[in-house]
Amino acid sequence: AQSVTQLGSHVSVSEGALVLLRCNYSSSVPPYLFWYVQYPNQGLQLLLKYTSAATLVKGINGFEAEFKKSETSFHLTKPSAHMSDAAEYFCAVRDTGFQKLVFGTGTRLLVSP
Amino acid sequence: DTAVSQTPKYLVTQMGNDKSIKCEQNLGHDTMYWYKQDSKKFLKIMFSYNNKELIINETVPNRFSPKSPDKAHLNLHINSLELGDSAVYFCASSQADRNTEAFFGQGTRLTVV
Asked: Would you call A106 and B41 a contact, using CB atoms and an 8 Å cutoff?
């Protein structure tokens, strides 16, 4: 079964600093990977997705992620953090066969002035 | 125009009661899901329906009964509510393709007292 692991339940950065949120996947077949963001008391919003078309994926709000098969990773980055980026971020993989999304445990991004 | 809408947004009820959460999507998707998010923000699939047929039932107590009257609606009925049922429940929808993302509703925060 497919799974994802997010390293770090909390990541703290200063405004303007680089954001790096880590996600490693486990899959027996080429994976379809997603990053979602959840703002307080809201639902999940798609940031970006990897569907094998390109290894570097650009998403909304200046985020991007790079698929690295050799490292089984799909880390999320943003060059310069804004206060409005403070939220919970989830990495997810499409499970084969049953088509459900399997989520990681989430990483809370804290941005300080 | 809301893509995936669920009602109510908040639900406070006593132990032993029966309650329902409704979900509707206007995206024309053929698959709908219920996810449960616990107090630690962990997201777990509960049910999935494809074209009104149940395709995923993830070891959820049979007090939880989903119903899909048509492709655009997926309701969740919970009998004999317990304290441990307190969580945020998310409805989502997608097309049944591995490379497509799921769209989430705003969530229903259920509190059992």
From this structure: yes
